[in-house]
């Protein structure tokens, strides 16, 4: 039995065993698998506990199986045309197969896992929640306004009308003459959408900010970004500039994502054209499907982009594809607004997988445990990850 076949076939054999519908030949194959590794027996025995099994199924249901896992499985040659309970079983084992194909053990828990479940039983523990629509708007006079999920907001700034609700802020500069500057900032665990006076739409990720005029002049359209934002720029004869980390991004009408954390700037172009400018009149042109990487304002490195990965945060996903564990932990810390304490050396290998950003912190930490073997615990706002 090959490793690629293993998750699907074994998942079905185990379910058949406990459902009482396994054939003698299938039982023989299952027995042979059980004696291969003590971890196989541990996994098999964990199915005896309905509560534990339900937790595992809930975890895999939180994965974006209809999107990424199934697409990868199809490319790997798996038959995904399943229905009913068999389809759900396939989903569960497909998640394992995809990660196993990437060189990661997924359904093979350590011998400590069942002990952890027992230890965690008892009163419910309140853990940090996923992020949501929240931001802070700073007006030109220094006044700040807290923006939330649903609250209606109507303001006036320099003759421009500002309206906001349900995670969006819209600027209307009709009739405005004065140009003032506002700053929209998202905290850890926050995201927000902004429509500028020219109709350009901006999505801000967690721990990000954008400084912008309430009305654009006749010369150009310039905004300043920190953190990460996705832009859909309205076409206009005036050029649009994004200033970030000492880099100037020049556009006329296009869609692109900019991620600028920890001194590294990644610009990913999905539509149109942008130009990356550095001091000294150095410039690089991007085409759709390309990404520009700038570190410490050195030369730009242009490469093919993984659009799905670059826009995953905007589409409500954590999407990891050959990512370092440090980068994965940083994303989790920003979105769940937690402090992470890492014990032991970080794994040198890279990891792949995805899960919805609205999954609970416990589910995301379960994912880390499954793919890396890390032991995770939460106490208040602190997450400890032991490798």
Automatic annotation (TrEMBL):
Phosphoprotein among keywords: no
GO MF entries: sigma factor antagonist activity
Transmembrane segments: 89-108
FecR protein domain ranges (all copies): 183-275
PANTHER family registered for this protein in UniProt: PERIPLASMIC SIGNAL SENSOR AND SIGMA FACTOR ACTIVATOR FECR-RELATED, PROTEIN FECR
Top-level taxon in the UniProt lineage: Bacteria
Protein name: DUF4974 domain-containing protein
A Pfam entry, by short name: FecR
InterPro entries named among the record's database cross-references: FecR, FecR_C, Ferrdict_sens_TM
Gene3D superfamilies membership: 2.60.120.1440, 3.55.50.30
Signal peptide start-end: none
Organism for this UniProt entry: Chitinophaga lutea
Alphabetical keyword list: Membrane, Transmembrane, Transmembrane helix
Residue ranges annotated for the Protein FecR C-terminal domain, each copy included: 318-385
């Amino acid at each position: 039995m090959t490793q690629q076949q293993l998750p699907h076939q074994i998942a079905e054999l185990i379910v058949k065993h406990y459902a009482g519908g396994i054939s003698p030949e299938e039982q023989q194959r299952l027995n042979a698998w059980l004696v291969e590794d003590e971890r196989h027996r541990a996994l098999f025995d964990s199915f005896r506990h309905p509560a534990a099994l339900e937790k595992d199924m809930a975890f895999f249901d939180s994965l974006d199986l209809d999107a990424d896992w199934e697409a990868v499985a199809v490319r790997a040659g798996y038959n995904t045309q399943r229905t009913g309970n068999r389809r759900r079983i396939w989903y569960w084992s497909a998640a394992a197969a995809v990660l196993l194909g990437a060189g990661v053990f997924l359904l093979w828990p350590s011998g400590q896992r069942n002990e952890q479940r027992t230890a965690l039983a008892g009163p419910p523990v309140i853990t940090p929640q996923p992020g949501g629509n929240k931001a802070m708007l700073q007006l030109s006079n220094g006044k700040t306004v807290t923006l939330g999920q649903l609250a209606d907001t109507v303001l006036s700034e320099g003759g421009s009308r500002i309206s906001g609700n349900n995670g969006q802020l819209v600027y209307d500069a009709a009739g405005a003459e004065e140009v003032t500057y506002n700053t929209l900032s998202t905290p850890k665990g926050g995201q927000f959408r902004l429509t500028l006076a020219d109709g350009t739409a901006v999505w801000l990720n967690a721990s990000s900010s954008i400084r912008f005029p309430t009305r654009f002049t006749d010369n150009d359209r310039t905004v300043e970004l920190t953190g990460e934002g996705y832009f859909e720029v309205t076409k206009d004869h005036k050029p649009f500039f994004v200033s970030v980390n000492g880099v100037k991004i020049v556009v006329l009408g296009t869609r692109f994502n900019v991620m600028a954390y920890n001194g590294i700037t990644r610009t990913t172009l999905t539509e149109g054209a942008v130009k990356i400018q550095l001091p000294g009149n150095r410039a690089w042109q991007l085409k759709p499907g390309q990404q520009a990487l700038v570190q410490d304002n050195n030369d730009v490195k242009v490469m093919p982009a993984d659009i799905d990965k670059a826009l995953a945060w905007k589409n409500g996903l954590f999407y990891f594809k050959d990512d370092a564990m440090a980068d994965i932990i940083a994303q989790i810390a920003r979105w769940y607004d937690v402090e992470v304490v890492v014990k032991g050396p970080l794994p040198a290998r890279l990891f792949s997988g995805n899960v919805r950003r609205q999954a609970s912190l416990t589910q995301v930490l379960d994912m880390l445990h499954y793919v890396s073997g890390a032991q995770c615990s939460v106490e208040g706002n602190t997450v400890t990850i032991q490798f």
